[in-house]
Amino acid sequence: MAKLNKINYQRKKTKTIAILLAILTSPLQLIAFLIIRILKPFIIIRIGWIHSTRIGHMAGNMELFFILKDIQDQNSSLRYLDVWCCTQEYVCNVQLLRMLKRKILIFPRWSLTVLAHLNLAIPGGSVHHISDNNSDRDIYNLLDRTSPHLDFTQQEEEKGSQMMRKLGIPINSKIICLIVRDAEYLNYFYSANDWSYHNHRDSNIQDYLLAIETLANRGYYVIRMGAKVREPLNSSHPRVIDYASNGMRTEFMDIYLGAKCFFAISTSTGWDAIPLIFRRPIAFVNVAPLGFLFTFSSKILAIAKHHISKLDGRELTMKEIFSRNVGFYTSNYEFNDKGVELVDNTPEEIRDLVVEMADRLEGVFQSKPEDKKLQSTFRKIFPKNAKDDKGIRLHGKIYSRYGSIFLRNNLSWLE
């Protein structure tokens, strides 16, 4: 509690100083506003906001912006100069910010706050506002066709290799990162808010033991990720490393491990944007809601939580999940009101999915004749034209796969 109080005090102090600096520099920001408008015929200066408090949006949104900016630069004769600041003084990962600064101009938030609001308040300012970095959903299927925009310096590569050895991972070993969402991070760092509305996204870390020890027995090193977790992982396997609980976690290694893993296992939570932007494969388990499943990459393999009707105890089929509109609920209160209970994937289902991912990447997966038809049926049922509550598209073409072994074992789910 003392550590949290210190963190909150530091944040309040930083915020207060930032407000004072914004006020003191407001005359200079007004001059900058006039200069930006005068230079518009020659160069368009734009201001963008980095979603700095959530690593998923900080990484995913910016990577997609970089891709779209590349396309824009290739197809436009207009000249742009983009400047950025963070949405809050608090930054969730300093290493990620450092890497972004090597690609774009990032200024302190206080130095652009007044300027940004002036641009939006006075007519003609929308052209000076970057509005296309508000999503981490690759609806144009661009990630599979492009290369990562962020990279490590030689010094950082050496640092990462040294830290891997300290974790007990031999050189050239294949690592698999595991991130399992629980409520601890938000309840610890943002305790003033009630986050229970999306507890349906949580799952029990111990349910993953069968899967990760199966992978470890095959020679992989499995690393449990997390900035703040509810409980340690109960494994004594020499190739299973509870990095989230062993005191060796750093913001630098959060990024480095995600970038270097053979593949990641995730329950769909913020950190998995790191392997995503470095184009690493991801096995998603216990996904909820199903309608928000990442479908845009062939490097994604997934299964969702079971949807059980409280009325008769029967599992809803995929068609029923969407026909009853529960495939897009983002609050556990909505599921309860609709009489639907979300039940976690079993340890065996999790194991089957991650083994399938490993086999596919190693080129030894044994496909069966019915697999192609099952995947086709899944893609036909899935509402690829769905939009969120703001009318924004959620999906492009469906490139991801649903777990083949799960579909074989649950034929009635696709009825």
Give a brief rundown of this model.
This protein is α/β, with parallel strands linked by helices and 415 residues long. Helix content is 40%, strand content 13%.
How would you explain this protein's 3D organization?
With 415 residues, the chain is α/β, with parallel strands linked by helices. It folds into two domains: 15-136, no CATH class; 152-414, Glycogen Phosphorylase B (Rossmann fold). The protein has helices spanning 2-24, 26-39, 55-75, 94-101, 109-121, 154-166, 184-189, 209-217, 251-260, 273-277, 318-323, 332-337, 347-362, 371-381, 404-409; strands at residues 44-50, 80-86, 105-106, 175-179, 221-224, 240-241, 263-266, 282-287, 300-304, 306-309, 340-343, 401-402. It has a seven-stranded parallel beta sheet with strand order 6-5-4-7-8-9-12, sandwiched between helices. Strands 1-2-3 form a three-stranded parallel beta sheet, sandwiched between helices. The chain has a two-stranded antiparallel sheet with strand order 10-11. Strand 2, helix 4 (94-101) and strand 3 (105-106) form a beta-alpha-beta unit. Helix 1 (2-24) crosses helix 5, helix 2 crosses helix 5 (109-121) and helix 8 runs parallel beside helix 13 (347-362). The chain is globular, with a radius of gyration of 23 Å.
